[in-house]
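=== RUN LOG ===
request id: a7f3
mode: sequence -> structure
chains: 1
length: 70
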Amino acid sequence: MDRLTLFGVIAVALMLICYALEHRSHWFVLAFAGSCALGSAYGFLQGAWPFGVVEAVWSLVALRRWWWRL
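=== RESULT ===
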């Protein structure tokens, strides 16, 4: 497994964990937004720009949800 693939696995794993724990704290919503941004970076770095765009949008949606939960 190369470093880029490992980065992608970690980003997606963090997304899953943070999404599952969102109901516990608004900080998990913020962490989900950050992990979506990491997933977006992974998508662009590997050349799958549609995945990168979708993850960037999810990151913005999660940031908005975090802001409303404050």
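=== NOTES ===
The chain has three helices and no strands.
Residues 3-69 form one domain.
=== END ===
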